[in-house]
């Protein structure tokens, strides 16, 4: 492929992704339609499928951008509590996650709503983004619990992340638990402090 | 309305719900289509809208059945550990929730996937089903933590349920945390034991 053709393809990809990201942020994943994206990116419908396999791949790439924004938000929160006790760092992380989900609800939901079947599995770079996120937790957690083997540290990180995620997702959706939004931050703090300050060991 | 007409309406509702429940269990909520339900229930398409407001109401009623099945599964698990220490009862509850979600994945997911906007709010009976479920947790939890005010007990119940839910949902979907399925039950046990056995108090 010539350099010029390659640049044209890259430009087209970026325009389509910009259009898709805007749709995901404002209306959510279900509003992402190939025909609309073509109109917004100023290309023929078929051109989308020259640069992307399918709409799932488009949404996955939007999610990659969302992960980067989430990562930046988390890094900023961590920078502000760098000198605080590790358990306070964990609470700040949990609150940053809640805040990001609350102010980017559609994009954040889309991280979990993409259709990934057991057959196709999870793409490698998705796992890598995860590891980067979980690494933020394992740092302070390993200071509170230096007794853990790397394996148990990894399990506790995932359990802690999943717990905070459960509070955020049920809270923001006002589903089963019907928790008022102002209770979410204290719930996250309580569960993290109880969890890492616990006597019961893995 | 005559008794006969009323019975006919009730029969039709039940047939439509049976058809919808079967679809939800096998294929999930997105596969519930009015036209298919009419065919399966042996009625005209318009007849569905004589007995239900819309497809959302049909799915909500299917969810009501799912809640009852979940409630029965939880009650059965509780009956088996009635004489165990309260913390073991809580672990059994968490495991029963995981087991139900794992073996009824589509129906369980549908509990959380129904479109409920902030405007329409959550129906009253949905909140009641929730309270019944959370009541199973508050019993043993109040034995472990008799110091809690009713308000704090309620917050801790919801936080504990949300945590277990987060582990189950991320685990079964193999999204961000990519936790192998056999690790889910131990993670639930660890988080519950750490949580309720904790020294850090609300």
TrEMBL record, chains A, B:
Domain HTH tetR-type: 10-70
Coiled coil: none
PROSITE patterns: HTH_TETR_2
Domain of life: Bacteria
A Pfam match: TetR_N
SUPFAM superfamilies on file: Homeodomain-like, Tetracyclin repressor-like, C-terminal domain
Record's keyword terms, sorted: DNA-binding, Transcription, Transcription regulation
InterPro entries registered for this protein in UniProt: Homeodomain-like_sf, HTH-type_TetR-like_transc_reg, HTH_TetR, MT1864/Rv1816-like_C, Tet_transcr_reg_TetR-rel_C_sf
One GO molecular-function entry: DNA-binding transcription factor activity
Residue ranges the UniProt entry marks as DNA-binding: 33-52
Protein name (database record): Transcriptional regulator, TetR family
């Amino acid at each position: 492929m010539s350099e010029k053709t390659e640049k044209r393809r890259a430009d087209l990809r970026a325009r389509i992704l910009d259009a898709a990201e805007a749709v995901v942020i404002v209306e959510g994943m279900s509003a992402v339609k190939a025909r609309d994206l073509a109109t917004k990116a100023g290309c023929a419908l078929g051109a989308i499928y020259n640069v992307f396999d399918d709409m799932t791949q488009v949404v996955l790439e939007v999610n990659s951008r969302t992960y980067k924004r989430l990562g930046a938000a988390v890094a900023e929160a961590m920078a502000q509590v760098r000198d605080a006790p590790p358990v306070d760092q964990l609470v700040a992380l949990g609150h940053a996650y809640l805040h990001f989900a609350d102010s980017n609800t559609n994009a954040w939901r889309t991280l979990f709503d993409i259709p990934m079947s057991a057959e196709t599995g999870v793409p490698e770079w998705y796992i890598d983004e995860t590891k980067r996120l979980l690494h933020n937790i394992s740092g302070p957690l390993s200071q509170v619990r230096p007794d853990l083997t790397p394996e148990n540290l990894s399990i506790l990180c995932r359990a802690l992340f999943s717990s905070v995620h459960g509070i955020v997702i049920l809270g923001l959706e006002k589903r089963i638990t019907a928790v008022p939004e102002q209770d979410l931050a204290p719930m996250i703090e309580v569960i993290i402090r109880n969890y890492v300050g616990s006597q019961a060991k893995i």
